[in-house]
Amino acid sequence: MNEMKVAVLGSEGTGKSALTVRFLTKRFIGEYASDTECIYTKHMCLDGKQINLEIYDPCSQPRQGKLSLTDELHWADGFVIVYDISDQTSFAFAKALLYRIRECHMGVCKKASESTIVLVGNKQDLCHMREVGWDEGQKLALDYKCQFCELSAAEHCQEVTAMFTRILKNVTSNSKGKEKRRPSGSKSMVKLINNMFGKRRKSV
Q1: Which of 70, 97, 182, 193 has the most CB atoms less than 10 A away?
Q2: Which domain covers residue 105, as residue numbers?
């Protein structure tokens, strides 16, 4: 069975946990502040193949402070970077995340060069409070050569599913022909992350 690992990153209040849960359960939950970091696991079928998906949802990252992301960059096959279209500060934070991933890509993290990234403008249902234009999100995605979409975790269940499915398909196509990671390595990496952050595992 193929293994895929996706990290969902963004500042507090962007709705990244709501996006994750919406995809996994089809249910919408309001954004909740959590001081625990979770790895959700889901067995699913993608293009006729069974995959074991792990989604890492860290507790909301603070807006200040150094973005190390070292463990996430080594661990994840793909990244979902989330901002709130009604919050300009969250957009600036998303830009900083993209910069950090690219910086690591150019540096020592070989893994990041194989990653697939999608920039997501969430809370499209709050268009009347918009602070970040669609064109700004599109331009940022072009600058960092990643995918972009706007949606609402609250209202767009199908769009959320399509976004996650697209990134998984891209991860699959990117990994073809590349040397497979040894299972022992990936397991020990998950164990290492769990030991460092004390995450809970949730199976859906």
Answers
A1: 97
A2: 2-195
The yes-or-no verdict on residue 64 having pLDDT over 90 is no
Q: 10-14, 17-21, 75-79, 174-178: which has the minimum mean pLDDT?
A: 174-178
pLDDT classification of 1: cutoffs 50, 70, 90: low
- Angstrom distances, CA of residue 176 to CA of 50, 170, 180: 16, 10, 9
Number of domains in the chain: 1
Is residue 204 domain-resident? no
Q: Whole-prediction pTM value?
A: 0.80
Q: Is residue 175 part of a domain?
A: yes
200-203, strands of its sheet edge to edge? 147-150, 116-122, 78-84, 2-9, 49-57, 38-46, 200-203
Residues 6+ apart with CB under 8 A from 176: none
CATH for 55: 3.40.50.300
